[in-house]
Write a structure and sequence with these properties.
The complex is a heterodimer of chains A (about 325) and B (about 325). With about 325 residues, chain A is of the alpha/beta class. Chain A contains 13 helices and 14 strands. Chain A has helices spanning about 5-20, 45-50, 60-70, 90-100, 100-105, 135, 150-165, 175-180, 210-225, 245-255, 270-280, 305-310, 315-325; strands at about 5, 25-30, 55, 75-80, 115-120, 145, 170-175, 180-185, 195-200, 205-210, 230-235, 240, 255-265, 290-295. A 7-stranded mixed beta sheet of chain A has the order 3-2-4-5-7-6-12, with helices on both faces. A 5-stranded mixed beta sheet of chain A has the order 9-11-10-13-14, sandwiched between helices. A two-stranded antiparallel ribbon of chain A has the order 1-8. In chain A, α3 (about 60-70) runs parallel beside α4, α9 (about 210-225) crosses α13 (about 315-325) and α10 (about 245-255) packs across α11 (about 270-280). Chain B is α/β, with parallel strands linked by helices and about 325 residues long. Chain B has a single domain (about 5-310), classed as Rossmann fold. Chain B has 10 helices and 7 strands. Chain B has helices at about 5-30, 45-50, 65-70, 75-80, 120-130, 150-160, 210-225, 255-260, 265-275, 280-305; strands spanning about 55-60, 135-140, 165-170, 175, 180, 200-205, 230-235. The chains are: A alpha/beta (about 325), B alpha/beta (about 325). Chains A and B meet through α3, α4 and α5 of A and α5 and α6 of B. Bound molecules: thiamine diphosphate. Thiamine diphosphate binds next to β2 and β4 of chain B.
Chain lengths: ~325, ~325
């Protein structure tokens, strides 16, 4: 199994999927000659031609709206939104159109398309190059939301997203692109959307995380293991639809839950997970559900102190998990 | 495309008008929740005759029933949609009336937010260019909707890639109650086309043959690979915006009466009578035939089952993916 960065896994999967299926094409800003500002589709225009790797104008509504039309008549667009912070001009197209197309036509028209976008902070991106956007989009039934945290998952889930008959928002934490490396299976490798994974087995506390926070959580679990506190780390991987079975099975085992996300707290994914767990596994709980999240601020400050203050990290997560274990 | 058969053209315009009147009555009787009149817009049917329903795509304005009747939509489809029945081909009773869709007729689904569907037409045209299927896509929207950025982004994108798509603005002078001079500072919406690097043309909607001719030129151009065009069709809406609107609040009865002199259905009837392709007795016979068709469709739709509660949960995701 070759070792690849998160970014390489994505780039290679884009290439593999385009080679596998000529209906697949890419559109977005700077995806052609430059190969995307983060270089995910680098070299693909050279390989597949300008008709299948299309540089678009700076117009997110059109990027998504055009992809919807092309998907409806049988192509499989992969739309790239350069930064997740700039997806909002297309919010209406994603939520009112792509997510509703199958439902509103009772299956007569569909939207098999992927929207890839780099999200998240910790890269000195300030308010508008750092946001986590998942909570807005997990509230739109009809849309799937995927957020891998490892290179192998990035490959398997991106391949699944491209082949999915429904629209998939594929969130790539930009801090992982070059900092995370891992073994990636060769050949055709597809993971099911909608399945979480128990990344580390433990018996004391269940930690639910995804994206960059998965790695911070694993580091926290590592530290706590030295104190004989065993954390079970569940990588959610798909945020909509949630893998209720895997989540609830872990909660039933440990009886204590901490949800970790970088996105702001109020009405975030942690709120939904806490509600789900209290509805389904209340009697299995031995402690209140805790959340370690970004604070309720309008954005992540550019200055280093502000950015550090905003972001959860292994230390903050370990503190919360330690308290939960002792509860 | 050769000249349309004037009788076929008159037939869809007349049928659309009769359907419109019946739908309004049903709403006033409390038998239909929502009506979206097309009366006054019938001349737009001309564009449908310039398209090839076998291969071309339609992402129309919601007032385009007259054109859709030529694309294969039937009165039964219309009433099943009106009554939100399970067999409504547009949405299986999920969407409000006139949110047209029919995959079997290359008619892509419309939502309510306007004009969200316009970039979809550009996407279909992009697919046509990538696949080389030689199809043309027609999309329509109102003058009011032309203020929203969707139009700008769509026209710009289509022009860059020389896509085979026609943008058609049906300008009836109002966005619900807001008159044109409060929506834009130009006389013709089509004037904007030059700013996108595409031709813009104006057609008078009271004359379906003029609409046909302007549409034909744009469609030929698109089919040749020369790119998109913008067409503005000047029309007047004879009825309130929808069944929930009171148009007396914003336009005078004098204005309305004056505009009724330009009724596209009456004018076209006069014209074909004058040209001796039509006469009063044939008109009566057609009226009876269409009336019978409407009765049949109405009875069919009324007898059709409503969707079940369980059906509300299907097709959220592909089969097996439903939660
Ligand atoms: C984004 C959005 N804003 C507001 C509305 C409510 N609305 C529905 S139709 C309409 C007026 C549209 O006028 P126009 O585009 O000129 O079309 P017409 O109805 O006159 O044919 C408005 C304001 C809407 N459907 N979508």
């Amino acid at each position: 199994m070759p070792t690849k960065t998160f970014l390489e896994a994505i780039r290679d999967t884009l290439s593999d999927e385009m080679a596998r299926d000529e209906r697949v094409f890419i559109l977005g800003e700077d995806v052609g000659k430059t190969g995307g500002v983060f270089r995910a589709p680098e070299g693909l225009q050279e390989k597949f031609g300008a008709a299948r790797v299309i540089d678009t104008p700076l117009a997110e509504l059109a990027i998504i709206g055009v992809a919807i039309g092309a998907a409806a008549v049988g192509l499989h667009p992969i739309a790239e939104i350069q930064f997740a912070d700039f997806i909002f001009p297309a919010f209406d197209q994603i939520v009112s159109e792509a997510a509703k197309m199958r439902y509103r036509t009772n299956g007569a028209w569909t939207c098999p398309m992927v929207i890839r976008t780099p999200y998240g902070g910790g890269i000195h991106g300030g308010l508008y190059h750092s946001q986590s956007i998942e909570a807005y989009f997990c509230h739109a039934p009809g849309l799937k939301v995927v957020a891998p945290s490892t290179p192998a998952d990035a490959k398997g889930l991106l391949a699944a997203a491209v082949r999915d008959p429904d629209p998939v928002l594929f969130l790539e934490h930009k801090k992982l692109y070059r900092s995370i490396k891992g073994d990636v299976p060769d050949g055709d490798f597809v993971l099911p959307i909608g399945r979480a994974e128990v990344n580390r087995v433990g018996s004391d506390v269940t930690a639910l995380a995804y994206g960059a926070m998965l790695h911070e959580t694993l580091a926290a679990a590592e530290e706590l293991a030295l104190e004989n506190i065993e954390i079970e780390v569940v990588d959610l991987r798909t945020l909509q639809p949630l893998d209720r079975e895997t989540i609830l099975a872990s909660v039933r085992k440990t009886g204590k839950v901490c949800v970790i996300h970088e996105d702001t707290k109020t009405m975030g994914l942690g709120a939904e997970l806490a509600a789900l767990i209290t509805e389904e596994a209340f009697l299995d709980l031995d402690a209140p559900i805790r959340r370690v999240t970004g604070p309720d601020l309008p954005g992540i400050p550019f200055n280093e102190v502000g950015e550090h203050t905003f972001l959860p990290n292994a230390q903050k997560i370990a503190d919360a998990l330690r308290k939960l274990a002792a509860y | 495309m050769s000249e349309p058969d004037p009788i076929a053209l008159y037939r869809v315009m007349f049928l659309a008008r009769m359907l419109d009147e019946r739908i309004w009555q049903l709403n006033r009787q409390g038998r239909a929740h929502f009506a979206v009149p097309a009366a006054g817009h019938e001349g737009v049917a001309g564009y449908a005759f310039a398209l090839d329903p076998a291969r071309d795509y339609l992402v129309p304005h919601y007032r385009d029933l007259p054109a859709l009747l030529h694309f294969g939509v039937t009165p039964r489809d219309v009433f099943c949609n009106l009554f939100a029945k399970a067999n409504d081909p547009n949405s299986a009773g999920r969407q409000m009336f006139a949110h047209w869709s029919d995959a079997t007729h290359h008619l892509l689904s419309l939502s309510s937010p306007q004009p969200n569907h316009v970039p979809h037409a550009v996407g279909i045209a992009l697919a046509s260019k990538i696949r080389g299927d030689n199809a043309v896509t027609w999309t329509g929207f109102g003058d009011g909707s032309s203020s929203k950025g969707d139009i700008h982004e769509s026209m710009n994108f289509a022009a860059i890639h020389k896509l085979p798509v026609i943008f058609c603005c049906e300008n009836n002078g109002y966005a619900i109650s807001v008159p044109q001079d409060m929506q834009m500072a130009v006389q013709n919406v089509a004037d904007r086309a030059a700013g996108y690097g595409m031709p813009g043309a104006v057609a008078q909607g009271r004359d379906p043959l003029e609409v046909f001719e302007v549409a034909r030129q744009a469609i030929d151009r698109a089919r040749r690979g020369d790119g998109p065009s913008f067409i503005e069709i000047k029309v007047y809406r004879f009825m309130p915006h929808t069944s929930n609107d009171d148009d007396k609040r914003y336009r005078s009865r004098e204005e309305l009466d004056a505009e009724r002199a330009n009724d596209p259905v009456a004018l076209f009837r006069e014209r074909i009578v004058k040209e001796k392709t039509w006469d009063a007795s044939r008109d009566d016979a057609l009226k009876q035939e269409l009336q019978a068709q409407i009765y049949d469709a109405l009875a069919f739709a009324e007898a059709s089952p409503a969707p079940t509660a369980a059906e509300a949960f299907t097709n959220v995701y592909a089969m097996g993916g439903d939660k």
